[in-house]
Amino acid sequence: MKKIKRIQDIEREKLRLKVQQLEQEKKLKDSWDGLKHDLKPGNFLRNKLNEFTHSKPDESGLVTGLVNVGAAYLSRRLTGYAGNKIDSTIHTGIEKASERLKTFLLRKKKKKRSSKAKE
Q1: What is the dihedral of CA 46, 50, 51, 54, to 10 degrees?
Q2: Which range among 3-7, 30-34, 75-79 has the greatest average pLDDT?
């Protein structure tokens, strides 16, 4: 790192760093936009089909791709099912806890009433 002797050197370095930052942000944004474009369902399927059609006949790209698509579909279905199952389990757990809390509070209320009645 070289020594800075003048304020103009600092300002020049700040300007250079700002330009570098802007260039990196632009690259990152372009990369992100490209990724979003490639991962849209229609584009994703189109790209995968292009991969399969351009593969050599002796390769098992089509079969592998179909298996991948099937696995993705099944995982989506299973996660949806698991989410529903977890949701219903949590719901019943909350219901049971609220019932227990109600019975506990009713017992406490009855004990207070009975102790006041005895006095």
Answers
A1: 170
A2: 30-34
Q: Which residues of 43-52 are buried (b: 16+ CB within 10 A; e: fewer)?
A: eeeeebeeee
DSSP symbols for the chain: -PPP-SHHHHHHHHHHHHHHHHHHHHHHHHHHHHHHHHTSHHHHHHHHHHHHHTS-TTS-HHHHHHHHHHHHHHHHHHHHHHHHHHHHHHHHHHHHHHHHHHHHHHHHHHHHHHHHHH-
pTM of the model: 0.36
How far apart CA 18 and CA 15 sit, in angstroms, is 5
What is the pLDDT averaged over residues 63-73?
74
pLDDT tens sequence across 80-92: 777 778 888 888 8
Which band of pLDDT confidence, cut at 50, 70 and 90, is reported for residue 117? Answer: low
* Beta-carbon count within 10 A of 103 CB: 10
User: Of 97, 78, 98, nearest to 86 (Cα)?
Assistant: 78
